[in-house]
């Protein structure tokens, strides 16, 4: 193993040892911060429980559905708005106004409309993820090379063909960036909805464990959400690499 | 004439949307959706009174303190970690994990460690907002132009002067990209910490309205949060334009070439 990875592993071990020592030495009461070994043991116990995997499944379901809806809507609207300069100018102010609205502001509305069902989570996730993707798609569509576009026109490519062979490949790297950002945001919002609203999933389990005094269990679940986050990051980077294998930003990585 | 056209583009769609909203509430009143008139009325009543001082200002104060602290910690830590190679290799995987933890789960954890206090809410905001700034700063510091870096070394510019005149400016586009993410995260965490564990503040008040089915009041709260988000994004864009004026200029020249 190269020295860099070794140092990284040492860093993780160092962090775990520090965590183990803080409650053991009594710097923080072990009732509030159990030592790392206990939390990891609790996490391993969780791995054997069906209830744990059901919660993970609920969270991932909300994450996936929300993300898919948001990406589909954003791609559709992004290509329509982006390809017309009139629509771009006319929607700009509205987009800039709606985008920074924090999706948590919609929590009360979601509760009112859907209660503690998955639809509440979906509403928050979709709202938050949608803007991330839409903005990137708009940038991407605006980035189309005019020479390439005019060349395609000269060769008699129709509107749909140009969208497919000129606009789409140009916008794809932007789109993938948007999807990657949206995937992270979607997880944050999925957990938030479960934590605050109480729709089923890991977030609710964390809130329950905390109020029920199952402290090691709560920390184990927090660790689990972190692991899910890391896995999502890895997955997204992988997908990005696969779909953009032809693009110079990825190709140059391979050569160097 | 031109400015009139621009104004039309800016206001056209919003005005149209409000008209649609107004028209759709005109016929039969909908329990869930107030009319534009009643919303504006409630907005004034609810938020421009005592509540402005008891709920809005404390929330904003915590947000500002948290975000500023997160930015300072993130930039200082990022410059440090980014310039020392072995430190970066040592910490990077651990930091990647911390960044991947969805920040809202910190609310119950910190509630447990610190109790329900103002400090805990500020710490929630800091510990959620610090990661984008920190990791972006590390990236930015790492990507400093090697030629510039060698030149400053040759000229004997070291220590603080090097950080001030080379590292911080060349990392600033990245740092600001991180700050932008932090700002929206900070707002989210402020609201969540108050919804989850509080007896005052914006988040608490809005949930209270929703629980007591005070629908126009709840909508007015949503509007307040929206305005906050929009306001923060405007302030950020203004600050970014000023700080990165040289950068945007440079990009323009490069793109034109």
Topology:
The complex is a heterodimer of chains A (256) and B (257).
Chain A: H1 3-24, H2 36-47, H3 50-82, H4 85-98, H5 107-114, H6 118-142, H7 146-154, H8 159-196, H9 202-211, H10 215-243, H11 248-255
Chain B: H1 2-24, H2 36-47, H3 50-83, H4 85-100, H5 106-114, H6 118-142, H7 146-154, H8 159-196, H9 202-211, H10 215-243, H11 245-256
Summarize this structure as a short list of keywords or feature phrases.
heterodimer; A: 256 residues; mainly alpha; MetI-like fold; B: 257 residues
Structure description:
The complex is a heterodimer of chains A (256) and B (257). Chain A has one domain: MetI-like fold. Helix content of chain A is 81%, strand content 0%. Chain A has helices spanning 3-24, 36-47, 50-82, 85-98, 107-114, 118-142, 146-154, 159-196, 202-211, 215-243, 248-255. In chain A, helix 8 (159-196) runs antiparallel to helix 10. The radius of gyration of chain A is 23 Å and the shape is globular. By secondary structure, chain B is mainly α. Chain B has a single domain, classed as MetI-like (MetI-like fold). Chain B has helices at residues 2-24, 36-47, 50-83, 85-100, 106-114, 118-142, 146-154, 159-196, 202-211, 215-243, 245-256. In chain B, helix 2 (36-47) packs across helix 10 (215-243). Chain B is flat and about 75 Å long. Chain B starts with a helix and ends with a helix. The relative contact order of chain B is 0.11.
Question: Which sequence of SSEs, written as H and E, runs from N to C of chain A?
Answer: HHHHHHHHHHH
Biggest sheet layout of chain A: none
Unreliable stretches of chain B, pLDDT < 50, 5 or more residues? none
What is the end-to-end distance of chain B? Answer: 33 Å
User: Cα-atom Rg of chain A, whole angstroms?
Assistant: 23 Å
Low-pLDDT stretches of chain A are none
Query: First CA to last CA of chain A: what distance?
Result: 20 Å
Mass-distribution shape of chain B: flat
């Amino acid at each position: 193993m190269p020295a860099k990875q070794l140092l990284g592993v040492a860093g993780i071990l160092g962090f775990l040892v520090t965590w183990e020592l803080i409650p053991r030495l009594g710097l923080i009461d072990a009732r509030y911060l159990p030592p790392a070994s206990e939390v990891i043991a609790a996490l391993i116990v969780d791995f054997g429980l069906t209830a744990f995997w059901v919660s993970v499944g609920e969270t991932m379901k909300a994450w996936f559905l929300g993300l898919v809806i948001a990406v589909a809507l954003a791609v559709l609207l992004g290509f329509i708005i982006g390809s017309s300069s009139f629509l771009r100018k006319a929607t700009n102010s509205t987009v800039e106004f709606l985008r920074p609205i924090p999706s948590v502001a919609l929590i009360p509305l979601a509760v009112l409309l859907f209660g503690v069902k998955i639809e509440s989570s979906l509403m928050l996730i979709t709202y938050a993820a949608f803007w991330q993707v839409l903005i990137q798609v708009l940038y991407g569509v605006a980035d189309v090379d005019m020479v390439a576009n005019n060349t395609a026109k000269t060769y008699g490519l129709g509107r749909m063909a140009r969208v497919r062979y000129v606009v789409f490949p140009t916008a794809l790297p932007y789109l993938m960036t948007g999807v990657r950002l949206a995937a992270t945001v979607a997880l944050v919002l999925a957990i938030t909805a479960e934590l605050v609203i109480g729709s089923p999933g890991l977030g609710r389990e964390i809130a329950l464990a905390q109020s029920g005094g199952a402290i090691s269990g709560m920390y184990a679940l927090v660790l689990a959400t972190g692991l899910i986050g890391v896995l999502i990051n890895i997955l997204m980077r992988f997908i990005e690499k696969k779909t953009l294998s032809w693009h110079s930003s990825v190709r140059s990585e391979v050569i160097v | 004439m031109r400015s009139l056209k621009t104004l039309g583009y800016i206001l056209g769609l919003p005005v149209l949307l409000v008209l649609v909203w107004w028209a759709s509430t005109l016929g039969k009143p909908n329990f869930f959706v107030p009319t534009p008139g009643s919303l504006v009325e409630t907005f004034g009543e609810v938020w421009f009174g005592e509540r402005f001082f008891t709920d809005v200002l404390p929330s904003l104060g915590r947000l500002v303190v948290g975000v500023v602290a997160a930015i300072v910690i993130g930039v200082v830590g990022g410059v440090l970690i980014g310039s020392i190679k072995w430190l970066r290799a040592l910490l990077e995987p651990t930091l990647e994990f911390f960044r991947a933890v969805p920040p809202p789960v910190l609310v119950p954890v910190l509630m447990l460690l610190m109790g329900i206090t103002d400090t805990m809410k500020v710490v929630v905001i800091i510990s959620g907002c610090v990661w984008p700034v920190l990791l972006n700063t590390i990236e930015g510091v790492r990507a400093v132009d090697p030629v510039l870096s060698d030149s400053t070394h040759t000229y004997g510019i070291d220590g603080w002067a090097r950080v001030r005149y080379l590292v911080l400016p060349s990392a600033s586009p990245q740092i600001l990209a991180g700050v932008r993410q932090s700002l929206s995260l900070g707002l989210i965490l402020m609201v969540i910490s108050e919804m989850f564990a509080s007896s005052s503040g914006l988040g608490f008040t809005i949930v209270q309205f929703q629980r007591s089915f005070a629908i126009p009041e709840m909508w007015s709260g949503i509007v307040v949060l929206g305005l906050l988000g929009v306001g923060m994004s405007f302030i950020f864009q203004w600050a970014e334009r000023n700080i990165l004026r040289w950068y945007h200029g440079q990009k323009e020249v490069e793109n034109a070439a």
